[in-house]
Amino acid sequence: MKRNPTREVKIGTIKVGNGHSIAVQSMCATKTRDIDATVSQANALHTAGADVVRIAVDNKPDVEALKEIRKQTKANLVVDLQESYRLAADLAPHVDKIRYNPGHLHHFEREKSVHEKVKFLVGVCHDHGIAMRIGVNCGSTDPDMIAKYGHDNNEAIVQSALMHVDLVEKFAFTNFVVSIKDSDPKKVIAANSRFAEIRPDIPLHLGVTEAGMPPDGIIKTRIAFEQLISQGIGDTLRVSLTVPNPRKPEEIEAGKSIIADIAAGRFRSVPKNFGEGLNIISCPSCSRVENEKFVELAEEVKRLTAYAAAHKLTIAVMGCRVNGPGETDDADLGLWCGPSHVNLKRKTEEVGTYSYEEIIPQLKEKLDELIAVRA
After folding, report:
1. Could you give the count of Cα atoms lying within 13 Å of 227 in the half-sphere of its Cβ?
2. What is the DSSP string of 304-341?
3. Sign of CA dihedral 48, 52, 53, 54
4. Which residues pair with 135 in a beta bridge?
5. Helices and strands counted in the chain (H then E)
6. Helix axes of 359-374 and 293-304: crossing angle, nearest 10 degrees
7. Which of 168, 225, 210 is nearest to 327 (CA)?
8. How far, in Å, CA of 356 to CA of 326, rounded?
9. CB-side neighbour CA atoms (13 Å) of 253
10. Residue 190 belongs to what H/E stretch?
11. What is the DSSP track for 129-167?
12. Is 119 exposed, middle or buried (0-12, 13-18, 19+ CB in 10 A)?
Protein backbone atom coordinates (compact mmCIF):
# COMPACT_ATOMS: atom_id res chain seq x y z
CA MET A 1 0.00 0.00 0.00
CA LYS A 2 1.04 3.59 -0.54
CA ARG A 3 2.34 5.01 2.78
CA ASN A 4 3.32 8.51 3.84
CA PRO A 5 7.05 8.75 4.64
CA THR A 6 6.50 9.27 8.37
CA ARG A 7 9.34 9.01 10.84
CA GLU A 8 9.85 5.91 12.97
CA VAL A 9 8.42 5.63 16.49
CA LYS A 10 9.25 2.77 18.88
CA ILE A 11 6.49 1.46 21.17
CA GLY A 12 7.77 -1.39 23.31
CA THR A 13 8.53 -4.33 21.02
CA ILE A 14 7.12 -2.75 17.85
CA LYS A 15 7.94 0.14 15.55
CA VAL A 16 5.43 2.26 13.63
CA GLY A 17 5.89 4.78 10.85
CA ASN A 18 8.69 4.76 8.27
CA GLY A 19 7.03 1.98 6.27
CA HIS A 20 6.44 -0.46 9.14
CA SER A 21 3.18 -2.43 9.17
CA ILE A 22 0.11 -0.59 10.43
CA ALA A 23 -0.30 -1.44 14.13
CA VAL A 24 -3.72 -2.43 15.47
CA GLN A 25 -4.70 -1.37 18.97
CA SER A 26 -7.51 -1.76 21.50
CA MET A 27 -8.28 -0.63 25.04
CA CYS A 28 -9.13 -2.57 28.16
CA ALA A 29 -12.71 -2.02 29.31
CA THR A 30 -12.09 -3.38 32.79
CA LYS A 31 -11.45 -1.31 35.90
CA THR A 32 -7.67 -0.95 36.12
CA ARG A 33 -7.71 -1.59 39.86
CA ASP A 34 -9.30 -5.00 39.14
CA ILE A 35 -5.96 -6.60 38.38
CA ASP A 36 -7.16 -10.08 37.46
CA ALA A 37 -9.85 -8.83 35.06
CA THR A 38 -7.51 -6.32 33.42
CA VAL A 39 -4.70 -8.84 32.98
CA SER A 40 -7.18 -11.30 31.49
CA GLN A 41 -8.47 -8.75 28.99
CA ALA A 42 -5.02 -7.40 28.09
CA ASN A 43 -3.85 -10.94 27.40
CA ALA A 44 -6.99 -11.75 25.39
CA LEU A 45 -6.37 -8.69 23.21
CA HIS A 46 -2.68 -9.56 22.88
CA THR A 47 -3.57 -13.11 21.84
CA ALA A 48 -6.03 -11.72 19.27
CA GLY A 49 -3.13 -9.81 17.69
CA ALA A 50 -3.22 -6.42 19.40
CA ASP A 51 0.09 -4.65 18.82
CA VAL A 52 -0.67 -2.19 21.62
CA VAL A 53 -3.16 -2.36 24.52
CA ARG A 54 -4.33 0.82 26.21
CA ILE A 55 -5.22 1.10 29.91
CA ALA A 56 -6.72 4.13 31.68
CA VAL A 57 -5.08 5.40 34.86
CA ASP A 58 -6.81 8.07 36.91
CA ASN A 59 -5.42 7.80 40.45
CA LYS A 60 -2.77 6.26 42.72
CA PRO A 61 -4.63 2.93 43.24
CA ASP A 62 -4.71 2.56 39.44
CA VAL A 63 -0.95 3.13 39.32
CA GLU A 64 -0.34 0.46 41.98
CA ALA A 65 -2.55 -1.97 40.06
CA LEU A 66 -0.71 -1.17 36.82
CA LYS A 67 2.60 -2.24 38.38
CA GLU A 68 1.19 -5.72 38.95
CA ILE A 69 -0.56 -5.83 35.57
CA ARG A 70 2.75 -5.10 33.86
CA LYS A 71 4.26 -8.22 35.47
CA GLN A 72 1.49 -10.45 34.15
CA THR A 73 1.21 -9.43 30.48
CA LYS A 74 3.54 -9.30 27.50
CA ALA A 75 1.32 -6.77 25.72
CA ASN A 76 2.82 -3.41 24.76
CA LEU A 77 1.01 -1.13 27.20
CA VAL A 78 0.00 2.47 26.64
CA VAL A 79 -1.52 4.35 29.54
CA ASP A 80 -4.32 6.83 29.03
CA LEU A 81 -3.78 9.87 31.26
CA GLN A 82 -6.78 11.96 32.23
CA GLU A 83 -6.55 15.26 34.10
CA SER A 84 -3.98 13.85 36.58
CA TYR A 85 -1.04 14.30 34.24
CA ARG A 86 1.48 14.14 37.10
CA LEU A 87 0.80 10.42 37.52
CA ALA A 88 2.98 10.00 34.43
CA ALA A 89 6.12 10.01 36.57
CA ASP A 90 4.85 7.09 38.71
CA LEU A 91 3.62 4.88 35.90
CA ALA A 92 6.27 5.51 33.23
CA PRO A 93 8.56 2.65 34.39
CA HIS A 94 5.73 0.17 33.74
CA VAL A 95 4.42 1.18 30.29
CA ASP A 96 5.62 1.57 26.72
CA LYS A 97 3.74 4.73 25.80
CA ILE A 98 1.82 7.58 27.45
CA ARG A 99 -1.22 9.17 25.84
CA TYR A 100 -2.39 12.62 26.88
CA ASN A 101 -5.26 14.75 25.63
CA PRO A 102 -4.39 18.44 25.09
CA GLY A 103 -7.90 19.49 26.14
CA HIS A 104 -7.57 17.76 29.51
CA LEU A 105 -4.38 19.62 30.44
CA HIS A 106 -6.52 22.66 31.27
CA HIS A 107 -8.49 20.90 34.02
CA PHE A 108 -5.80 20.24 36.63
CA GLU A 109 -3.34 22.66 38.29
CA ARG A 110 -4.88 25.54 36.38
CA GLU A 111 -2.29 27.93 37.72
CA LYS A 112 0.33 26.18 35.58
CA SER A 113 0.66 26.74 31.85
CA VAL A 114 0.10 24.03 29.24
CA HIS A 115 3.72 24.67 28.21
CA GLU A 116 4.94 23.60 31.68
CA LYS A 117 2.75 20.48 31.71
CA VAL A 118 3.87 19.31 28.28
CA LYS A 119 7.50 19.90 29.25
CA PHE A 120 6.95 17.67 32.30
CA LEU A 121 5.37 14.89 30.21
CA VAL A 122 8.11 15.03 27.58
CA GLY A 123 10.73 14.84 30.33
CA VAL A 124 9.10 11.72 31.78
CA CYS A 125 8.90 9.99 28.38
CA HIS A 126 12.47 10.95 27.50
CA ASP A 127 13.90 9.78 30.84
CA HIS A 128 12.18 6.40 30.60
CA GLY A 129 12.67 5.85 26.88
CA ILE A 130 8.97 5.46 26.12
CA ALA A 131 6.72 6.79 23.38
CA MET A 132 3.99 9.42 23.54
CA ARG A 133 0.65 9.96 21.82
CA ILE A 134 -0.88 13.42 21.51
CA GLY A 135 -4.55 12.46 21.40
CA VAL A 136 -6.97 15.18 20.28
CA ASN A 137 -10.71 14.47 20.53
CA CYS A 138 -13.64 16.45 19.16
CA GLY A 139 -15.49 16.41 22.50
CA SER A 140 -12.61 17.63 24.65
CA THR A 141 -10.85 20.18 22.49
CA ASP A 142 -8.39 22.73 23.87
CA PRO A 143 -10.63 25.61 25.07
CA ASP A 144 -8.23 28.20 23.65
CA MET A 145 -8.60 26.64 20.21
CA ILE A 146 -12.37 26.53 20.54
CA ALA A 147 -12.35 30.25 21.34
CA LYS A 148 -10.15 30.97 18.33
CA TYR A 149 -11.80 28.62 15.80
CA GLY A 150 -15.26 28.28 17.35
CA HIS A 151 -16.92 28.40 13.96
CA ASP A 152 -14.91 25.41 12.75
CA ASN A 153 -14.38 22.59 15.26
CA ASN A 154 -12.38 20.55 12.76
CA GLU A 155 -9.89 23.38 12.35
CA ALA A 156 -9.76 23.75 16.15
CA ILE A 157 -8.71 20.13 16.67
CA VAL A 158 -6.18 20.21 13.81
CA GLN A 159 -4.60 23.40 15.14
CA SER A 160 -4.57 21.96 18.66
CA ALA A 161 -2.65 18.93 17.37
CA LEU A 162 -0.21 21.11 15.43
CA MET A 163 0.40 23.37 18.43
CA HIS A 164 1.23 20.40 20.66
CA VAL A 165 3.49 18.88 18.02
CA ASP A 166 5.42 22.15 17.99
CA LEU A 167 5.59 22.13 21.81
CA VAL A 168 6.83 18.54 22.05
CA GLU A 169 9.41 19.08 19.31
CA LYS A 170 10.57 22.26 21.04
CA PHE A 171 11.75 19.99 23.85
CA ALA A 172 13.73 17.85 21.35
CA PHE A 173 11.42 14.83 21.58
CA THR A 174 10.40 12.94 18.44
CA ASN A 175 9.23 9.50 19.63
CA PHE A 176 5.55 10.38 19.41
CA VAL A 177 2.42 9.89 17.32
CA VAL A 178 -0.70 12.02 16.92
CA SER A 179 -4.38 11.09 16.81
CA ILE A 180 -7.24 13.35 15.72
CA LYS A 181 -10.65 11.78 16.30
CA ASP A 182 -14.32 12.56 15.82
CA SER A 183 -17.49 10.46 15.85
CA ASP A 184 -18.25 11.57 12.27
CA PRO A 185 -16.12 9.65 9.74
CA LYS A 186 -16.28 12.56 7.28
CA LYS A 187 -14.72 14.87 9.88
CA VAL A 188 -12.08 12.25 10.72
CA ILE A 189 -11.14 12.09 7.05
CA ALA A 190 -11.03 15.88 6.70
CA ALA A 191 -9.04 16.53 9.89
CA ASN A 192 -6.44 13.82 9.36
CA SER A 193 -6.02 14.70 5.70
CA ARG A 194 -5.40 18.35 6.60
CA PHE A 195 -2.93 17.47 9.35
CA ALA A 196 -1.06 15.03 7.09
CA GLU A 197 -0.83 17.67 4.37
CA ILE A 198 0.88 20.06 6.80
CA ARG A 199 2.99 17.47 8.68
CA PRO A 200 3.34 14.35 6.50
CA ASP A 201 6.31 13.27 8.63
CA ILE A 202 4.30 12.69 11.83
CA PRO A 203 2.90 9.15 12.34
CA LEU A 204 -0.88 9.19 12.79
CA HIS A 205 -3.06 6.90 14.89
CA LEU A 206 -6.48 6.60 13.24
CA GLY A 207 -9.86 6.07 14.83
CA VAL A 208 -13.52 7.07 14.75
CA THR A 209 -14.33 7.79 18.37
CA GLU A 210 -17.70 6.67 19.72
CA ALA A 211 -18.26 4.69 16.52
CA GLY A 212 -20.95 2.69 18.32
CA MET A 213 -22.14 -0.89 18.14
CA PRO A 214 -21.46 -3.41 15.37
CA PRO A 215 -22.13 -3.46 12.50
CA ASP A 216 -22.68 0.32 12.25
CA GLY A 217 -19.52 1.10 14.22
CA ILE A 218 -17.41 -1.02 11.89
CA ILE A 219 -19.01 0.57 8.83
CA LYS A 220 -18.35 4.12 10.08
CA THR A 221 -14.75 3.22 10.87
CA ARG A 222 -14.23 1.49 7.54
CA ILE A 223 -15.47 4.60 5.69
CA ALA A 224 -12.77 6.72 7.35
CA PHE A 225 -9.98 4.14 7.14
CA GLU A 226 -10.54 3.31 3.47
CA GLN A 227 -10.28 6.97 2.50
CA LEU A 228 -7.25 7.75 4.69
CA ILE A 229 -5.15 4.60 4.37
CA SER A 230 -5.60 4.57 0.61
CA GLN A 231 -4.00 8.06 0.63
CA GLY A 232 -1.03 6.73 2.60
CA ILE A 233 -2.27 8.22 5.88
CA GLY A 234 -2.20 6.13 9.06
CA ASP A 235 0.45 4.17 10.96
CA THR A 236 -1.63 2.74 13.82
CA LEU A 237 -5.39 2.36 14.25
CA ARG A 238 -8.22 1.28 16.50
CA VAL A 239 -11.78 0.22 15.74
CA SER A 240 -13.72 1.59 18.75
CA LEU A 241 -16.80 -0.54 19.37
CA THR A 242 -19.45 -0.61 22.08
CA VAL A 243 -19.39 -4.30 23.03
CA PRO A 244 -19.49 -6.34 26.26
CA ASN A 245 -16.10 -7.04 27.83
CA PRO A 246 -15.69 -10.62 26.55
CA ARG A 247 -16.10 -9.36 22.97
CA LYS A 248 -13.36 -6.68 23.05
CA PRO A 249 -11.05 -8.76 20.76
CA GLU A 250 -13.59 -8.06 18.00
CA GLU A 251 -11.95 -4.61 17.71
CA ILE A 252 -8.68 -6.30 16.72
CA GLU A 253 -10.40 -8.65 14.27
CA ALA A 254 -12.23 -5.73 12.62
CA GLY A 255 -9.06 -3.61 12.37
CA LYS A 256 -7.01 -6.39 10.79
CA SER A 257 -9.83 -7.22 8.39
CA ILE A 258 -10.10 -3.61 7.20
CA ILE A 259 -6.33 -3.35 6.65
CA ALA A 260 -6.27 -6.63 4.71
CA ASP A 261 -9.18 -5.53 2.53
CA ILE A 262 -7.57 -2.19 1.70
CA ALA A 263 -4.23 -3.86 0.91
CA ALA A 264 -6.02 -6.25 -1.45
CA GLY A 265 -8.08 -3.48 -3.06
CA ARG A 266 -11.32 -4.81 -1.60
CA PHE A 267 -13.16 -1.57 -0.93
CA ARG A 268 -16.74 -1.78 0.33
CA SER A 269 -19.39 0.35 -1.32
CA VAL A 270 -21.40 2.54 1.03
CA PRO A 271 -25.11 3.23 0.39
CA LYS A 272 -25.69 6.88 -0.49
CA ASN A 273 -28.22 7.24 2.32
CA PHE A 274 -25.94 5.75 5.01
CA GLY A 275 -25.80 8.18 7.92
CA GLU A 276 -28.67 10.32 6.66
CA GLY A 277 -31.23 9.00 9.14
CA LEU A 278 -31.00 8.37 12.88
CA ASN A 279 -27.37 8.34 14.06
CA ILE A 280 -26.56 6.68 17.37
CA ILE A 281 -23.05 7.33 18.63
CA SER A 282 -21.72 5.56 21.70
CA CYS A 283 -18.27 5.42 23.18
CA PRO A 284 -16.31 2.18 23.16
CA SER A 285 -16.53 0.22 26.38
CA CYS A 286 -13.36 1.02 28.33
CA SER A 287 -12.07 1.15 31.89
CA ARG A 288 -13.41 4.69 32.36
CA VAL A 289 -17.01 3.44 32.14
CA GLU A 290 -18.67 4.21 35.49
CA ASN A 291 -21.24 1.40 35.33
CA GLU A 292 -21.18 -1.74 33.20
CA LYS A 293 -24.90 -1.25 32.58
CA PHE A 294 -23.77 1.37 30.05
CA VAL A 295 -23.32 -1.23 27.30
CA GLU A 296 -26.75 -2.75 27.99
CA LEU A 297 -28.23 0.76 27.96
CA ALA A 298 -26.64 1.55 24.58
CA GLU A 299 -28.08 -1.66 23.15
CA GLU A 300 -31.51 -0.85 24.60
CA VAL A 301 -31.37 2.66 23.10
CA LYS A 302 -30.67 1.12 19.70
CA ARG A 303 -33.65 -1.24 20.03
CA LEU A 304 -35.98 1.44 21.38
CA THR A 305 -35.22 3.98 18.67
CA ALA A 306 -35.58 1.65 15.69
CA TYR A 307 -38.96 3.24 14.91
CA ALA A 308 -37.19 6.61 14.37
CA ALA A 309 -34.65 5.28 11.85
CA ALA A 310 -35.77 7.65 9.07
CA HIS A 311 -35.39 10.81 11.16
CA LYS A 312 -32.13 12.76 10.84
CA LEU A 313 -31.32 12.98 14.54
CA THR A 314 -28.27 12.13 16.63
CA ILE A 315 -28.45 10.33 19.97
CA ALA A 316 -25.22 10.02 21.97
CA VAL A 317 -24.69 7.45 24.73
CA MET A 318 -21.52 8.09 26.74
CA GLY A 319 -20.16 5.95 29.56
CA CYS A 320 -18.07 8.25 31.75
CA ARG A 321 -17.58 11.68 33.30
CA VAL A 322 -14.39 12.31 31.30
CA ASN A 323 -15.94 12.49 27.83
CA GLY A 324 -19.66 12.32 28.62
CA PRO A 325 -20.48 15.99 29.28
CA GLY A 326 -18.56 17.46 26.33
CA GLU A 327 -19.20 14.76 23.76
CA THR A 328 -22.98 14.89 24.16
CA ASP A 329 -23.14 18.64 23.51
CA ASP A 330 -23.66 18.28 19.76
CA ALA A 331 -26.24 15.49 19.97
CA ASP A 332 -29.96 16.15 19.67
CA LEU A 333 -30.33 13.92 22.72
CA GLY A 334 -27.40 12.88 24.89
CA LEU A 335 -27.05 10.38 27.70
CA TRP A 336 -23.92 10.33 29.80
CA CYS A 337 -23.75 7.68 32.45
CA GLY A 338 -22.60 7.93 36.04
CA PRO A 339 -22.24 5.13 38.61
CA SER A 340 -25.94 5.04 39.52
CA HIS A 341 -27.69 7.65 37.36
CA VAL A 342 -27.85 8.79 33.74
CA ASN A 343 -27.76 12.45 32.74
CA LEU A 344 -30.15 13.32 29.91
CA LYS A 345 -29.40 16.34 27.69
CA ARG A 346 -30.78 18.18 24.67
CA LYS A 347 -27.64 19.58 23.03
CA THR A 348 -25.99 21.51 25.88
CA GLU A 349 -29.23 21.80 27.89
CA GLU A 350 -29.51 19.58 30.97
CA VAL A 351 -32.92 17.86 30.96
CA GLY A 352 -32.60 15.77 34.12
CA THR A 353 -30.87 12.93 35.97
CA TYR A 354 -32.53 9.52 36.07
CA SER A 355 -31.81 6.01 37.31
CA TYR A 356 -30.85 3.35 34.78
CA GLU A 357 -34.39 1.96 35.12
CA GLU A 358 -36.05 5.35 34.50
CA ILE A 359 -33.96 6.68 31.61
CA ILE A 360 -35.44 4.72 28.67
CA PRO A 361 -39.03 6.04 29.00
CA GLN A 362 -37.64 9.54 29.54
CA LEU A 363 -35.54 9.26 26.39
CA LYS A 364 -38.51 8.03 24.37
CA GLU A 365 -40.64 10.94 25.57
CA LYS A 366 -38.00 13.49 24.52
CA LEU A 367 -37.40 11.71 21.22
CA ASP A 368 -41.11 11.76 20.40
CA GLU A 369 -41.22 15.49 21.24
CA LEU A 370 -38.32 16.20 18.84
CA ILE A 371 -39.92 14.18 16.06
CA ALA A 372 -43.24 15.97 16.56
CA VAL A 373 -41.60 19.41 16.50
CA ARG A 374 -39.72 18.62 13.29
CA ALA A 375 -42.82 17.21 11.66
Report:
1. 18
2. HGGGGTTS--EEEEE-STTTHHHHTTTSSEEEEE-SSE
3. negative
4. 179
5. 12, 15
6. 30
7. 210
8. 21
9. 8
10. helix 185-198
11. T-EEEEEEEGGG--HHHHHHSTT-HHHHHHHHHHHHHHH
12. middle
Cα separations in angstroms, 318 against 17, 72, 89, 107, 298: 32, 30, 29, 20, 9
Q: Does residue 202 sit in helix, strand or coil?
A: coil
DSSP output for 23-66: EEEEE--S-TT-HHHHHHHHHHHHHHT-SEEEEEE-SHHHHHHH
Which amino acid is located at 329 in the chain?
A: D
Say how far residue 157 (Cα) sits from the centre of its chain: 14
Q: What is the DSSP string of 5-32?
A: -PPPEEETTEEESTTPPPEEEEE--S-T
Beta bridge partners of 226: none
What residues pair up with 53 in beta bridges, in sequence order?
26, 77
Domains of the chain: 9-263 (3.20.20.20), 279-374 (3.30.413.10)
- Pair 138, 327: CB distance under 8 Å: yes
Give the global pTM: 0.83
Residue 125 binned pLDDT confidence (cut-offs 50, 70, 90): very high
pLDDT tens-digit map of 197-240 = 999 999 999 999 988 999 999 999 999 999 999 999 999 999 99
